[in-house]
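Re: the 137-residue chain
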Amino acid sequence: MLKERTLTITPDALDSMITDYHWMVNTIKEMRSEMVIEAKTAQYGIEATLPKAAGGVGDPIMQEAIRRSKNIKRVVEYEKKLLEVQNLIERVAGDREVQVLNWMLDGKSQRWIGQHMALSATSIRRIKNSIVCQMLA
């Protein structure tokens, strides 16, 4: 049984997910490494007796936990996009298309790809459009 796609993807959205794939992978790795929160240390001296700010969380560790919990939501969204692209990769046929897609997922620019394949920018754009069409077919 094939797994159905969970997201409705437009060609522009898929194009953007392919373009952003590399930095999303790096961002997920970095955010996961930062998600560990260290234990709270007690306050001593005059800081312990001073009043906390009204209207917000006075605990800086709690503030950091709140900030990082928002990052978790972003990581989940990035993971959904990455999985969607990964599920569609097998639909791409053709040696040029596969190579261009792999280089794009590795974070190479279209200009770099064109130079290394000895193709014009227009050809790379055409190949990228072909990739998107094949993935959505």
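The two ends are 18 Å apart (CA to CA).
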